Amino acid sequence: MALKYLQHKWQKISLVIFLVFTVLILILALFVNSYWSPILENKVKDIVTTSSDSLYTVNFSSAELHVLRGTIVINNIDLKPDTAIYNSRKNHHIAPNNLVELHIKKLVLSHIHPFSLYFRHNLNIGRVMLYNPELYISFQLNHVRDTVLKDRRTAWQKIKKSLNYIHIGDILMGDVKFKYTDNSGHKIAISEFKEMNLSAHDLLIDSATQTDKSRLLYCKDITAELNNYKGNTSSGLYSYSINSLKLSTSKSQLTALGINLKPASTDVFFSRTHRDRFTLRLDSAQLNNFDFLNYHKYRILTGTRLTISDGSFQVFANPNHSSKKENMVKSFPNAAIDRIGDDITLDTVLFRRMNVIYNEFNTKSKQAGSLSFNNTNGTALNITNNKTALQKNSKFNIKLTSYFMNRGKLSTEFNFNLTDKDNAFNYKGTLGPMKLQALNPAVMPLAMLKVNGGTLQQFSFDIIANNAVAKGRVEMLYSDVKVSLLKADTTNDKLKKKLIESLYANIFILKHNNPDKPDEHPRVAFVQYTRPPEKAFFSSVWQTLLSGIKPSVGLDKKTQQAIVTMQDQQAENKRDHQERKAERLKRKAERKLKKELKKSENQ
């Protein structure tokens, strides 16, 4: 068929022309590749040096321009800072907070237009692929606001003599090895990340975008994804993990999925520290209007709304009190916010479907009691330690609704003063109807008391407190309460009923109803609780409320002392009984001995 086609002279001439043209194109492409590759190398190095004010230099083993394929391949790239220039700027207080080092095995730029680059000075690239990238960032807080260099030009103003504009459609990096060193604290903190993907879209540097605030680093959107991140705290007491972390700069949104903070086992944890033990699990956390660039540059965390959904937060009070009596005031929310190292301002935090559990060990009962707040929802407003923000509003407010012990509906409100030196705060709330037997997981181990029956109509409280003392009003309306007093059974490792004391308490001490009669005013307890320094926030709140619950049911100081007196009397009677019994046995033994001696003498 081909031979038939070449029978005519014009066909042969056409073929020859086509082959010659093809060869010329190939020769020209080879020439262009060899000619422009050095030019390209110099151009890239010049752009990096110029745009960074000589702070960074770039080197690579080879740069290849493939005209026919419209690609540029650069191998073994090293982007490094000039430490001499950095230290000089640091001495003049104009050094950046972040220093970057980048290693790339291969960089492929595709869908480029070399003739447009050479003749029109327009750098237009469809896609940039980075293979085996290794990114190292070190942070040191050299300044807390943008520094002013002698050269105030924008990136476009710096490159416009060489290029009219730079446009890149997509920049893709997969399986990034990322190491982050934070030098801002007392100790150097190093974080290493794997399974990290980075992508940037629509990078444009020209006269219009040089002042475009909607773009980050001149990109319309930068997306970072981190999967299966795990680590341990410096103390070794906690391990943490995040299944997925995603940042989108176009949405200004940071989303984390599968967050877990796990403490060491109870015996290991409490043997190494006197602090309370925390456990946290969250299905998701999403921060809106997150200013990534401000956080990256200055460790200033800002956001309008943080939504925390579907999880649990558990606190186990440390039973081992330090001989130094460490003041646990740092566990108070207002004190904890003030101690956060980073500058933080969150307008609103939303809690959705959270379970909160508080556990405390009673040395008398040798058991742990548990308080639970199930299906907790609510809002927290104005979480900040920023001095300027605190001058405008120093109140931190939390409103929550929950189901106490998974039964009665609880509505609470806390107000914290973020600038008060004594960590002043107040809280109030109401608890709706529930069967009082639901309290036994808490009151049996912690109060040595078992509720056998009774119904709560309403429990309300209004407390004003600081880190030293709490004062307020507690009211508990209930009916048909019956209880048993308990004591520790060390033999069987459980609690058992005090028969006589329980009978005495139910008949003479316990108030079975409040009010006692329908037409009477209910009893109200006015509490004053002085916090021992070693008591943490959750424990002090519980002890304050408990100091109002006891007198509401008739267990005030006087009646409790009566019970103690009765117990002491019973103990004394028991000792007297044992002593009399021992005396009788002694006399019996003496009489028996005398009889045996007399019998032996007669023999």
Number of extended strands: 23
Which overall shape is indicated by the principal axes computed on the Cα atoms? elongated
Strand proportion: 35-45%
Please give the share of residues in helix: 25-40%
Report the span from N to C terminus: 149 Å
Low-confidence spans: pLDDT under 50, at least 5 residues?
15-32
Number of helices: 13
Which structural class matches the secondary elements?
alpha+beta
Major sheet description: 23 strands, mixed
Mean of residue pLDDT values = 82
Q: What oligomeric state do the depicted chains represent?
A: single chain
Using only CA atoms, what is the Rg?
38 Å
Question: How would you sum up this structure, described in words?
Answer:
Mean pLDDT is 82; it is low at 15-32. This protein is 29% helix and 44% strand. It has a 23-stranded mixed beta sheet that branches. It is elongated and about 135 Å long. It has a domain at 40-221. The chain has 603 residues and is of the alpha+beta class.
